Amino acid sequence: MKTIFENFRIVALFVAMGLIFSCTKSDPIVGTSCERNAEKVSEAALAYTSDPTSTARCEAYKTAVSNFFKSCPTYYSGASKDALDEFLKTPCN
Fold it and tell me: For residue 5, how far is the Cα from the chain centroid?
């Protein structure tokens, strides 16, 4: 259980960094997509933290994170990308 919360904290940090740095004014389509997916990640995170034993909420959260990750591909690289990939591969229990 501790590992799930550690992974959640890591992903939350990367999502927050993504929100801050990935959306640019030069390309409003990408910015809109990032913003929309960031909102979905926030909603899914709130639902998942309210019931961390729910496999469905865990999967929904991971899907939201994956979609956010795909909508901002140039932001994540190196250790950030590896940490997100590791989190997304971790099974929901």
Answer: 14
Residue located via tokens 């990640």? 41
pLDDT value of residue 17: 60
Could you tell me the pTM of the whole model? 0.63
Output the CA torsion sign for 51, 53, 58, 59. Answer: negative
Nearest to 75 by CA among 31, 39, 43, 44: 31
Mean pLDDT (whole number) for 45-50: 92
Average pLDDT, the chain: 78
Could you tell me the CA-to-CA distances from 34 to 6, 21, 59, 82, 85 in Å, in that order? 24, 10, 20, 20, 18
